[in-house]
Amino acid sequence: MSNDGIIGKFQNGKRFTIMVRTGVYKGRSYVDIRTYFTDASGELRPTSRGVRVDQNNFSELKKLINQVPSDLPKA
Fold it and tell me: How crowded is residue 17: how many other Cβ atoms within 10 Å of its Cβ?
């Protein structure tokens, strides 16, 4: 996995990492927010859990995320 386009990452529990990346696919720019796991050799590998949003729709996603209250109710 190339480190190109990595915006940031954080641990999500003991086994998973959530990574935010940017890139280009089929000539279109995108933002990818995806769950990764660490394989037996210690490398991060992507799972199918995540979302890839093209550049044209990213501002809409960002607006929605900004509407999420910071004090979410506890489960």
Answer: 15
Count of domains observed in the chain: 1
Helix (H, G, I), strand (E, B) or coil at 65: helix
Residue 38 falls within a domain, yes or no? yes
| Residue 17 lies in domain | 6-66
Sequence-distant (6+) residues with CB within 8 A of 65 are: none
| 5: alpha, beta or left? (left if phi > 0; alpha if psi -120 to 50) | left
DSSP string across 13-38: TTTEEEEEEEEEETTEEEEEEEEEEE
Kindly report the CATH number assigned to the domain that includes residue 28. 2.30.31.10
Longest Cα–Cα distance of the chain, Å, equals 42
pLDDT in tens, 28-49: 999 999 999 999 999 999 999 9
